[in-house]
Amino acid sequence: MLEGATEPDPTTLDPTAAPEKAAPLVPPEVVAQTLPEYLHGQWLRIKSGESGLLPVLLALAVIIVVFQVISPHHVFLSAGNLVNLFQQSAFFMVFAMAETFALLLGDIDLSIGYVGAVGGAIGVQLVQPATANWPWEAAVVVALLACAAIGAVQGTLITRLRLPSFIVTLAGLLIFNGVLLMILALGPFSGYPSLSGLSSNLHALYDFMWGHVTPLVGWIAMVVIVGLMSLSWILRDARRRRSGLVAPPPAVTYLKIGLLAAAGIVVVAICNINRAAIGTLEGVPYSIFIVLGVLGAWTLLLQRTRYGRYVYAIGGNPEAARRAGINVRGVRTWAFVLCSFTAGIAGLLYASFLGGMSNNVNGGQLVLYAVAAAVIGGTSLFGGRGKAANGVVGGLVIGAIYNGMFLMGWDVKLQFVVTGLVLIAAVTVDSLTRRGAATGSAGRF
Amino acid sequence: MVEASTGEPLCRVQGIYKSFGAVQALTDVDLDLPAGQVTALCGDNGAGKSVLIKCIAGIHEPDRGQIYWEGRPVRIHNAHDASALGIETVYQDLALADNLDIVQNMFLGRERLRHRFLDENDMERAASETLAGLRVTTVRSIRQPVGSLSGGQRQSVAVAKAVMWNSKLVIMDEPTAALGVTQTEMVLELVRNLRDSGLGVVVISHNLNDVFAVADRIAVLHLGRMAVQERASAFDRQSVVEYMTMGTAGMATMGPRANGGGS
User: Fold this and answer.
1) Which residues of B touch A19 (CB under 8 A)?
2) Same domain, B67 and B179
3) Do A15 and B189 touch (CB under 8 A)?
4) Domains of chain B: total
5) Interface touch B142/A26, C-beta < 8 Å
C-alpha cells in the first residue's frame, strides 16, 4: 500500500526484485521499528477495513460518557453501578460468544436462547434439595452436556440433511421453549424453581453471578492473569525474532502490557470498593472469571488451533475449505455443539442472575440480543469474520444501554428502540467495512 | 507422435476414454506433459479440456487408457493421489478464502502444528520463502487478507499454494480469463518462472495471445479427440484456430498431422 500510492500498478512480477524480497512481504506495522511507525501501520490497517474492535470501543465510550453526564447524580460510573452493569451484561456476553460459532460459519442459531434456558433450568432443578438434590458440580456438568447434545442433534440435521440452519434452529426455538416449560413444571415449585435456600448447592449456583472473591484474591488473580498474558506476548515476540521474522517493536509490546495492567488494576479497584448501602459488599464477582474463562478458551480455540482456522475458512469460502481436504460437515456440526454448549454456560449464568428459573423467560429475545451483541461487537453476519472478544464488547454495549436507560427511569419500550438503532448502526459498519475492504484494494494496487 | 525433447515426459496420457452416460467426452486421447515446459491446452467449448485435466487431477477416473507418471503407469483415483504424485491444479475460481491471509490460505488444510497449536512462525517463513522463490514480491504483506489483493496477486497466491508441496506438474485452468493486461502479464511471467524452475506446466486457455506468449508446446482438443500436439513454433494463430474449430488445419501452412488417425 505504501508503494502502491506512487506506482499505478506495482503488481507485475519483477524478476530482478528477488534479492530484496523480504521487505515488501512484511506488513508495515510489523516492519516498523519505532512506535510512531507502528501506529501509522495500524492506521493504514484500519483504513483498509481491518478495523477490529475500534469502532465498537468508540461507541462504548460515547455511551458511557453520555450516560455519565445525564444520569441522576452521575451515578453511572459509580463502583456499585459498574459491577451491576457487568453482571447485567455477563450473560449477554456469553450468549454472544455462543452465537459467534454459528455466525463465523455464515449460519445462525436461533435456538440458543431457549437451549441456554433449558440448560439453566436443568441445573436449577437438579440442585433442588426437595427433589433431586444433586451436588452442584454434577448438575452443571449434566446441564452443559444436555445443551451440547441438543447442539449435536441440530448440527447433524443441518449438515447431514443439508437443512438451512435458520429453519432447524427456528424449530429448535419453539421445541426448546416447550421443553423448558416441561422441565420447569417438574417438582413442587409451580414453574418457578428457585436458587434461594440454605442448601450449599443452591448457593453455589446462585454465586455464579452474585458471589465474589475477597479483595486480596482479586488482586492476586489480576497479577497472575496480567503476568501470564505479558509473558506470552514477550515470549511470542522473542520466538518470532529467533525465527528470523520481524516482531513488533518492544515499545509496542510494553505499551500493550501497560494498558492491560492498567485495565486490570482499574477493574479490580472498582470491584473492591464497598458497593453495599449497608454493611460490606466488595470483591471481584465470580462472573468476571467465568466470562474471562470462556473468552480465553474460545479465543485460543478459534485463533490458535486447526479447528478454529477451519471455522474461519468455511465461513470465508466453503468450497475452498472442501477442496483443501477439510471435513466441512464435521467442523460445522461441532460448531453447533460448541454454540449450544456455550449457550448452556450463559443459561446457567442467567439462572443465577434471576435467582432461579421461571416460565416467563423470553428465549426468543435472548437470542436476538445474542446476535445483536455479536454483530455490534464486530462479528460479521456474512461469516468468516469475528472473534469471541467481539461478543464480550458487544454484550457490554447492550448491557450499558440497558443499564443506563434503567438508571434514567426510561421505559423498556425506549430501550428496545435504542438497542435496535445501535444494531442497525453496527450492521451498517459491518457492510461498509466489507465494501471498504473490497473497493479499497482496487485503489491500492 | 515423436516428441522433440529427449527422454520420458513427466506425465504421459495414453489412449484415454471418458464418457458421461451417453456423452463421449474423451476419445482415445494422448497427451505428453514434459518437465520444464509449458503446454497450452486449447480447444473450443465442450472440446473436453476440463475433463482431460480432471482425469489427470484425480477428479474423474478415465474409462480406458493409461496415465504414466515419470515413466511408471499410475492410477489416480482422487485429488489426494494426484497431490501425492506432485500434481497440483489451480482452478479458475482459485479456491481462496478471502477472509484468511496469504499464509493461512497457502497452508489451508495442511497447517503446521507446534504443541497442538498452530505454528504461525514456521508457516509464515515457509510461505514467504515460496513467494520469494516465485518472485512474487509486490504484495504489501503476507499477513493481509486475500480479499484485499488484486486479481493477479490472487492468482499468484493460488499458484504459490499449489507449488508449496514439492509439486512437479502444475495445471492452471484459464489463469488469465478474468484479468486485465498488466495482471495477465504478471501471471504469464509467473508461469515462465515455474517452467524455469523445472516444473511441468499445463495452461488451459482460450486466449491465443497468452498461448503464444508462454507455451513451449500446444495441444488442441476437438470434440473429445486430440487434434494435434506439437511444439509451439510449429503453429501460427491461423492453424491453431483451424484445429480448434475443424480438428484439422486444411491450409498448407505447415505439417503437424492430426494424431487421431494414429500409428
Assistant:
1) none
2) yes
3) yes
4) 2
5) yes
Tracing cell 484439422 back to the chain, one arrives at B248
Retrieve residue B62's grid coordinates: 478415465
* Cα–Cα distance measured from residue A343 to residue A94, given in angstroms and rounded to the nearest whole number: 7
The minimal CB distance from A245 to the residues B99, B100, B124 is found for B124
Q: What is the pLDDT of residues B217-233, one digit of tens each?
A: 999 999 999 999 989 88
Tell me the residue range of the domain where B41 lies. 1-86+168-263
Contacts of A3 in chain B (CB under 8 A): 138
- Closest Cα of chain A to B118: distance in Å? 5
Q: Using the predicted structure, report yes or no on whether residue B255 has a pLDDT greater than 60.
A: no
Half-sphere exposure of A199 (CA within 13 A, CB side): 19
Question: B108 with B21, same domain?
Answer: no
Alpha helices in chain B (DSSP H): 49-57, 79-85, 102-106, 120-133, 151-163, 181-196, 208-214, 237-246
Mutation target to probe the A interface, by most A beta carbons within 10 A, among B78, B88, B96, B121 is: B121
CB-CB under 8 Å, A22 with B132:
yes
Whether residues A438 and B79 touch (CB distance < 8 A) is answered with no
> A409, exposed or middle or buried, with CB in 10 Å at 0-12, 13-18, 19+?
exposed
Exposed e or buried b per residue across A231-251, where buried means at least 16 C-beta atoms within 10 angstroms of its C-beta = eebeeebeebeeeebbbbbee
pLDDT tens per residue across all 445 residues of chain A: 333 333 333 333 443 333 333 334 445 545 566 777 777 777 776 666 566 778 788 889 999 999 999 988 888 999 999 999 999 999 999 999 999 999 999 999 999 999 999 999 999 999 999 998 999 999 999 999 999 999 999 999 999 999 999 999 999 999 999 999 999 999 888 888 999 888 999 999 999 999 999 999 999 999 999 999 999 999 999 998 888 888 888 888 999 999 999 999 999 999 999 888 888 888 999 999 999 999 999 999 999 999 999 999 999 999 999 888 899 999 999 999 999 999 999 999 999 999 999 888 989 889 999 999 999 898 998 899 999 999 999 999 999 988 998 888 888 788 888 888 888 887 887 777 766 555 443 333 3
CA distance B176 to chain A (A): 13
- Choose the final residue of a domain: B113, B148, B166: B166
Say which CATH number the domain at B251 has. Answer: 3.40.50.300
pLDDT single digits (tens) B12-38: 999 999 999 889 999 999 999 999 999
- Chain A residues lying within 8 Å of B118, measured CB to CB: 304-306, 309
- Specify whether B255 is located in the same domain as B129: no
Asked if the interface predicted TM-score (ipTM) of this complex is over 0.90, the answer is no
Residue A45 · residue A248 · CB < 8 Å: no
Residues B256 and B203 in one domain: yes
The pLDDT of residue B95 is above 60: yes
- Interface test mutation site (partner B, options A3, A12, A307, max chain B beta carbons within 10 A): A12
With 0-12 CB in 10 A as exposed, 13-18 as middle and 19+ as buried, what is A175?
Answer: middle
CB spacing of B121 vs A312 below 8 angstroms: no
Q: Is B58 on the interface with A (CB under 8 A)?
A: no
Q: Does B130 share its domain with B185?
A: no
Residues of A in contact with B178 (CB under 8 A): none
Note which residues in 173-212 of chain B have CB less than 8 A from chain A. 182-183, 185-186, 189-190, 193
Q: Is A26 helix (H, G, I), strand (E, B) or coil?
A: coil
Q: Which residues from A are below 8 Å from B148, CB to CB?
A: 48-49, 437, 440-441, 444
Contact assessment for residue B52 and residue B46, using Cβ atoms and an 8 Å cutoff: no
State the pLDDT at residue A31. Answer: 54
- Whole-prediction pTM value? 0.85
Single out the residue in B166, B187, B218 at which a domain terminates. Answer: B166
- Smallest Cα–Cα separation from B123: which of B96, B99, B103? B103
Q: Which residues of chain A neighbour B147 with C-beta distances below 8 Å?
A: 437-438, 441
How far does the CA of residue A432 sit from the closest CA of chain B (Å)? 14
